[in-house]
Design brief:
Elements lengths: L14 H10 L4 H10 L6 H8 L7 H11 L3 H4 L4
Length: 81
């Protein structure tokens, strides 16, 4: 497992929560990317890494797909619960 070299960014609220939820499910980034593809979200490994590092913006479509795949609410990803 590689450690993040960059500081967390400030371009999204959900990155750290996505990473935490993914790891709780025992899911690798590659597996999450495959599930995103199945749900119609085209994202590459670099994009997911940047999303989790909060240095990439997140679209509403990506937000909903991530919540569905990770089986958590959108509000939870946004830190509203």
């Amino acid at each position: 497992m590689r450690l993040r070299k960059q500081e967390l960014g400030d371009r999204n609220l959900i990155g750290a929560r996505v990473e935490s939820a993914r790891k709780r499910k025992g899911m690798k980034q590659k597996e999450l990317l495959a599930q995103l593809q199945v749900n119609g979200v085209d994202m590459n490994a670099s994009g997911l890494s940047k999303l989790e590092g909060q240095i990439r913006y997140v679209t509403d479509i990506e937000l909903v797909a991530l919540a569905d795949i990770l089986e958590i609410s959108v509000d939870s990803l946004l830190g509203r619960e």
